[in-house]
């Protein structure tokens, strides 16, 4: 018998709190979709950060994802499309691009500064 873990997601954009029992080993995004819930996603492969959430409480397994740095994981971010519950969880969706900017913003700013203004001659 596969253990079930209660997962609660605060869906900020929809202003809703959604809870389901997710079977251990099942991806959380897919499990919520099987209940008819639409959550943000794009690649479904743990690469793009569109499905990123902040972990409010609990722990999960996201060893299948490559889209978040170790630093971001340590700060409590996770990717729903490749995250599996290993106990009760409370998560919060992030605004589109929010996690992408946190993770890559410093590199984009550096690139912009190095490039300067392309219209300066
Ligand atoms: S949908 Fe792209 S990382 Fe999850």
In short:
25% of the residues lie in helices and 28% in strands. It is α+β, with helices and mostly antiparallel strands and 121 residues long.
Which key terms come to mind for this protein?
single chain, 121 residues, five-stranded mixed β-sheet, 7 strands, binds FE2/S2 (inorganic) cluster
Q: Count up the helices.
A: 3
For the secondary structure, the number of strands is 7
Q: What percentage of residues falls in helices of 4 or more residues?
A: 10-25%
The small molecules bound here are:
FE2/S2 (inorganic) cluster
CATH superfamily: Beta-grasp domain
Distance between the termini: 69 Å
Give structural notes.
- The chain is α+β, with helices and mostly antiparallel strands.
- The protein has a single domain (4-115), classed as Roll (Ubiquitin-like (UB roll)), CATH 3.10.20.30.
- Helix content is 25%, strand content 28%.
- It has helices at residues 28-34, 70-74, 98-115; strands at residues 4-11, 16-23, 52-57, 60-61, 77-79, 84-85, 89-93.
- It has a five-stranded mixed beta sheet with strand order 2-1-7-3-5. Strands 4-6 form a two-stranded antiparallel sheet.
- Strand 1 and strand 2 (16-23) form a beta hairpin.
- The radius of gyration is 17 Å and the shape is elongated.
- The protein starts with a strand and ends in a 6-residue tail after the last helix.
- The mean pLDDT is 90.
- The site of FE2/S2 (inorganic) cluster (FES) has 13 residues, from loops.
Please specify the SSE layout and strand pairing.
Elements: E1 4-11, E2 16-23, H1 28-34, E3 52-57, E4 60-61, H2 70-74, E5 77-79, E6 84-85, E7 89-93, H3 98-115
Parallel strand pairs: 1-7
Antiparallel strand pairs: 1-2, 3-5, 3-7, 4-6
Bound molecules: FE2/S2 (inorganic) cluster.
FE2/S2 (inorganic) cluster (FES) binds at residues 41-44, 46-51, 67, 79, 81.
